Amino acid sequence: DQQVKQNSPSLSVQEGRISILNCDYTNSMFDYFLWYKKYPAEGPTFLISISSIKDKNEDGRFTVFLNKSAKHLSLHIVPSQPGDSAVYFCAASVRTGGFKTIFGAGTRLFVKA
Amino acid sequence: DAGVIQSPRHEVTEMGQEVTLRCKPISGHNSLFWYRQTMMRGLELLIYFNNNVPIDDSGMPEDRFSAKMPNASFSTLKIQPSEPRDSAVYFCASSLMEGSGNTIYFGEGSWLTVV
What we know:
The complex is a heterodimer of chains A (113) and B (115).
Chain A: E1 4-5, E2 10-14, E3 19-25, E4 32-38, E5 45-51, E6 56-59, E7 62-67, E8 72-77, E9 86-95, E10 99-103, E11 107-112
Parallel strand pairs in A: 2-11
Antiparallel strand pairs in A: 1-3, 3-8, 4-5, 4-9, 6-7, 7-8, 9-10, 9-11
Chain B: E1 5-7, E2 10-13, E3 19-24, E4 31-38, E5 42-50, E6 53-56, E7 65-71, E8 74-79, E9 88-95, E10 105-106, E11 110-114
Parallel strand pairs in B: 2-11
Antiparallel strand pairs in B: 1-3, 3-8, 4-5, 4-9, 5-6, 7-8, 9-10, 9-11
């Protein structure tokens, strides 16, 4: 049962344009959402997060939007740069004795120069 | 500060052999996670610990997999006997559980190939 879904395996964007990565979740108990970036042969690294009590969080070129009613979140990267080419994972956490954190399958972003 | 340290980085083993993956979390973190990355399923949560106690092991695929955390600075993931379908990258991660949420920090992964 995939509780966190990233339905687009890949996305290709021109340098300078906006990249929009989408994520859907099914468990309404999730209260914290995160995006991670992963380069080949490295571990995922934290990018940006958002609490369920907010609908937007911005950090430089990266903005995460949360729509709780639709159980949907998205990551906007603007402007996109070639160095942003990586796999992006969406994750969601629920407090159950610790924070159980579930990841989606990832979306590979290609930013073309 | 040292990040999450995993060993070995790469392991090639024959089917039926025992495999032990090791992890040292970030000092001071109280939660530890084991994930497996495959092409088909992305990052799967296998098990996680809080204060050295296993909280949820529902993601452990079968009885051949076991994980321990004898103290706050060390954890192991063991596969016995290993099978070719266990080939994947295994990530250990740690976090400091706080009120509003947690940020997980990953190690560089252990690349396992079972032939």
